[in-house]
Amino acid sequence: MITKIKLNRKQQIIEKATQLFQKQGYAATSMRDLAGFIGIEAASLYSHIKSKEEILQTICFQMAEDFFQSLDACELANEQADVKLKEAVVSHVEVLTRDTAASAVFVSEWRHLSEPYLSDFLSMRNQYENKFIQILIDGNKAGIFKALDAKFTVLALLSSVNWMPAWYKPNGKLSPREIAENVTDVFINGLKVR
Amino acid sequence: MITKIKLNRKQQIIEKATQLFQKQGYAATSMRDLAGFIGIEAASLYSHIKSKEEILQTICFQMAEDFFQSLDACELANEQADVKLKEAVVSHVEVLTRDTAASAVFVSEWRHLSEPYLSDFLSMRNQYENKFIQILIDGNKAGIFKALDAKFTVLALLSSVNWMPAWYKPNGKLSPREIAENVTDVFINGLKVR
DNA sequence: GTAACGAACTAACGCTAGTTAGGAAAATAA
DNA sequence: TTATTTTCCTAACTAGCGTTAGTTCGTTAC
């Protein structure tokens, strides 16, 4: 009984590649490595994909799309800046934890994209970060947030959260939302008892 | 007039390699690349170094030593936990910004170390993180810090700060100490006006 | 002046990389 | 059953990898 395990070879290739790219890095992962783990020959991969880089592109741009979609799904129009920030970070962390391997690749392997994909990627990332920056700026104008370099602060916030895939265990005690709420609480209210 | 530019070839090799490892990653940087930038043949590198990995080892362990040395130099024995934490982060950021390229390599290329160097490296890193964790635990016991998962919080804090080398410009408006103080202030007191 | 040394060179080694071509086998459709 | 399409194979190619061997050549030491 074989059942229909073989949903889609291409999808399986991308999934395994994601794991290997996370563990070893894109450049240090060979097509023979990848094929071996799947149980076929390296050349056979090319019946399903066009190139090694296509895999990386798929991972990176799929994740980018997920981040945008999740952020857009938050209804933030009528909220205060601190609530907005919290919800935005929760959305971000939920995407991050949904597939930690893909997230890790997204965070640290994008630089191996070639042009014009690299430029596209960076411009999308910039656009995404700007949404967070705007929340901080608005929050400051509204007297809710301190006057800090908004870009700098957002980068610090996202960096702290982007490295979660490296240590997040899906069976841990905390849900993604709880984790995100903890992190944002520290950022918004601080570590200190008051 | 040639003057004595050639301070030390080995040092020059390591410096250039550091830049390339940062920009392209360790695995994606070839010895011919490196040699080309220096202006010699790849084979000639081996008059000065034993292997490609030796360069990575030098960078990673030199940085590790710097971090420990800088942290140990802080006199924290009689301070409150929040001051301790602030000083520890300042020390960390000062090392990070002293050589941003080496720091970036230290942060993201260590996984290409082979055994036993990899294990040594990770155990040192663990030891280092534990010093921060202890500060949080003590601070909580003393009623200064909230009750949070200390390890989790430290990793978030260090991650947020470890990605500074990627965007820090030495000629920026803020000194390393000011940057570190800003970051720690957010972490300790929060983003919110009170 | 000659011996010794350091740093560079050329040439090549063995290996692995990503990828292509062409055909066999297996799965699917008619 | 036959035809078609999908999947995988073997074999091979070119390019590049890290590294070694052996040599040349200028500088330094006696």
Automatic annotation (TrEMBL), chains A, B:
MF-aspect GO terms: DNA binding
Q: What is this protein called?
A: TetR family transcriptional regulator
The HTH tetR-type domain covers 7-67
InterPro entries for this protein: Homeodomain-like_sf (IPR009057), HTH-type_Tx_Regulator (IPR050624), HTH_TetR (IPR001647), KstR2_TetR_C (IPR041490), Tet_transcr_reg_TetR-rel_C_sf (IPR036271)
Q: Which domain of life is it from?
A: Bacteria
Q: Which UniProt keywords apply?
A: DNA-binding
Protein species of origin: Marivirga aurantiaca
Which sections of the sequence are annotated for DNA binding? 30-49
